[in-house]
Structures are given as structure tokens and as C-alpha cells.
Design goal:
The protein is α+β, with helices and mostly antiparallel strands. The protein is 49% helix and 18% strand. The relative contact order is 0.10.
């Protein structure tokens, strides 16, 4: 125009962008690209939502594991001495049974969320999945670096280690 600006060939006099004729190849190409981009945005949003959910589940599980460890220790203590429960009142026995039920339900909920405890006894030490607490001489026939015992179970969700297993390694 006279004001020094160049006229846009797709703009009509009112300033609105004129739509290309449906038979123009450029219109079809832009349409296909727009549909593909929308599909990619939807896929990315679903992926991001799933990743956020996984992070939330993992974070909650990490917070609950110390309480679950304490429950494991309490039940192991009761199981280590049957005399503790033989003379127990029915109320004590019911309390222990209630703790066992809670223990099973917590493990079931973790399992449903894809979180599993793992015991790497006999496996080769992997610093990404194991935390070496101590090293002992390797028994005859056992390769160095083999996990001999587990002090504390590790937990993982799929391939992601939530907590490394605390282990004794053959040296």
C-alpha cells in the first residue's frame, strides 16, 4: 500500500486472512500437518501425565518403605520367638494377626502399583541396584562380587530402582 507496508496476498481489504481454495495443494498440506501436530500434542500430554503419575507413585512408595521395614522387623521379632505368642492373650494374638493383615495389604497395594521387593542374593553386585554394607571373603567356588546376604530388601518399579538393596558382597 501507500503507507510503505507490503500487501499480504492472503489478506483481504478488511484485514482478515482469506482461506485458500479447497483445491489448492498448500491447503491440504497445512491441514494434514495440523492434524499430525494435534495428534503429537495429545500423545505428548498422555506421556507426560503417565510420567507424572509414575513419579508420584514412586515418591509415595519411597516415603512408605521405612514404615514397611519397621513392620517387617516387628513381625520378624514376633516370629523369631514362638513363646512370645504362645502365652499371649487373645488380644495380643489378634493384634499380631491384624499387623500381618496390614503387612499383606501394603505389599499387595505396592504390587498393584508395579512396585516389588527384590532379593539379589547370589547375583553379581550392581552399584545401581545394590548398596554394599560390608565385604566378606568369598566362599570357595563363589566369584568375587557375588552378593552373599541381604540386610535390607531393595524395591523397584519396573526397571527403576526405588531403593537399593543393602547387601554383603564376596571379596
Amino acid at each position: 500500500g501507500d503507507d510503505g507496508s507490503e500487501d499480504d496476498p492472503d489478506e483481504d481489504e478488511s484485514g482478515a486472512v482469506a482461506e485458500p481454495a479447497p483445491d489448492e495443494p498448500d491447503w491440504k498440506d497445512r491441514y494434514v500437518r495440523s492434524v499430525a501436530e494435534l495428534d503429537n500434542v495429545r500423545k505428548r500430554a498422555r506421556r507426560d501425565a503417565a510420567a507424572g503419575e509414575a513419579r508420584g507413585i514412586s515418591r509415595l512408595a519411597k516415603e512408605l518403605l521405612p514404615a514397611l521395614d519397621n513392620l517387617d522387623r516387628a513381625l520378624a521379632h514376633v516370629d523369631s520367638d514362638p513363646a512370645r505368642t504362645e502365652g499371649a492373650t487373645s488380644g495380643d494374638g489378634q493384634l499380631v494377626e491384624g499387623l500381618r493383615i496390614v503387612h499383606r495389604e501394603i505389599h499387595a497395594a505396592l504390587s498393584q502399583a508395579g512396585i516389588e521387593a527384590y532379593d539379589p542374593t547370589g547375583e553379581q553386585f550392581d552399584p545401581h541396584a545394590h548398596e554394599a554394607l560390608t565385604q566378606q571373603p568369598a566362599p570357595e567356588g563363589t566369584p568375587s562380587g557375588t552378593i552373599l546376604a541381604v540386610y535390607q530388601a531393595g524395591y523397584r518399579r519396573g526397571e527403576d530402582v526405588l531403593r537399593a538393596a543393602k547387601v554383603v558382597v564376596a571379596g
